[in-house]
Amino acid sequence: MEQNIIVRVANSGDTHYAQTITDEMEASAKARGTGIAKRSPDYVAQKMTEGKAVIALLPDGTWVGFCYIEAWGHDEFVANSGLIVAPVFRKSGVAKLIKRTIFNLSREKYPKAKIFGLTTGLAVMKINSELGYEPVTYSELTDDEEFWAGCKSCVNYDILMSKDRKNCMCTAMLYDPADHYTPEETTQEFNKHSKLWERFMKIKQSRLLSFFKRKESSGSSGKPKSLFHYFFHL
């Protein structure tokens, strides 16, 4: 990673980056062929003003990366959302630094909250594991309606709803401050089974797409079965 990248808590002076950030979020999701809960520049700017976001910049002001905090269920749950890095700085290690900074900020602002994330990427799963997150089923996440409403702008929202919000393309991960393994333990576990997780995610996404297409064509819910049924609620 370039040593001159600055990663810090965002503030009201950074709001002019909001449009650039949301444009890149949308472009990145389209390139991956997966969805995200779309956020407006005003929403991102608000997070900056509230001190609930982390931004990465070069000394000359070039935008590098971003992530923000959302609290749900009367602050019982916190999500570190919208992690995005400018294409030229990807694979530089800055994403890991942003994730660690936003994680520490979340622990500082919401020390008792469970911190969770939804991701379609194995690289983000690896970073989360290094922070102490564990893979979980959707039932362990917040039931706050406002959180799930935020998924409406995701291209996979129909799949989420067809599964009664029990599953979707994303993999859920959770850090519980009251009951968790050490980062060393979760990192070791992820590294040990990373290839299996990669297969899980590919099979899960393939089966969900097949399930949804069958449901659309037949008008029935279907009941596909697989070895992954228990964990993925297929």
Automatic annotation (TrEMBL):
UniProt xrefs under InterPro entries: Acyl_CoA_acyltransferase
Domain of life, per lineage: Bacteria
Record protein name field: N-acetyltransferase domain-containing protein
Organism expressing this protein natively: Hydrobacter penzbergensis
